[in-house]
Amino acid sequence: MKIYIRKILYFSIAAVLCVIVFKAVSGEFMFSSKKRANKITVESAVIYQDDIGHYFAAGDLPLTGLKSQRVAKEARADKSSQKCFLFVRMKTEGSFAAWGQVSCRIGQRKKEMKITIPGIGGSDWYYYLIDVSGTPLNLDSESPDVHISWDKLFTKG
User: Fold this and answer.
1) By three-state DSSP, how is residue 121 classified?
2) How far apart are CA 51 and CA 60, in angstroms?
3) Quick check: 150 and 99 in contact, CB under 8 A?
4) Nearest residue to 104 via CA among 87, 118, 92, 121
């Protein structure tokens, strides 16, 4: 009987240790600090493939001031077969590092996309480009609004 209880005890301790190690490795034991979310600049736009270089070259100009390269309805007809991308750029306002996961919702769509942010820090922009060509979007008028919120935000520094 003692051996049976000892085996159950060892098994229970091993199971608890496995859970602790898994949570530590997956980052769940780290403190998710959404307080610093307002210290991270996040800008986004839905763009055509031809506009990618234009947006990467924008430097510190706000994305809201950039105009798409598509100017006429005829040009949009040619671009209807092009890929569309969600262009996201981020930078921290301060000397701390941040990483985590954001949820993105384009326009009135109810489905959100999850984007893992491996790390940002310093005063440089970090860019993310996600293909959304399979997403039904109406880009004839203006680029749809993109709503981004932090699901998990971890910071250091």
Assistant:
1) strand
2) 17
3) no
4) 87
The kind and range of the H/E element at 118 are strand 113-121
Q: How many residues does the chain have?
A: 157
**Strand 113-121 vs strand 126-131: parallel, antiparallel, or unpaired?**
unpaired
pTM (2 decimals)?
0.69
**CATH number of this structure's domain 34-156:** 2.60.40
104, 115 contact by CB (below 8 A): yes
Q: Which two tokens stand for residue 60?
A: 């510190």
φ, ψ of residue 133 in degrees (nearest 5): -60, -30
C-alpha–C-alpha distance, residues 59 and 10, integer Å: 58
Q: Containing H/E element for 24?
A: helix 2-26
Better-scored residue on pLDDT, 113 or 68:
113
The tens digit of pLDDT for each residue in 80-112 reads: 567 888 899 999 988 888 999 999 988 777 788
Q: How many CB atoms neighbour CB 100 within 10 A?
A: 23
Contact assessment for residue 106 and residue 5, using Cβ atoms and an 8 Å cutoff: no
Full DSSP string of 43-95: EEEEEEGGGHHHHHTTTTS-GGG---S--SHHHHHHHTTS-EEEEEEEEESSS
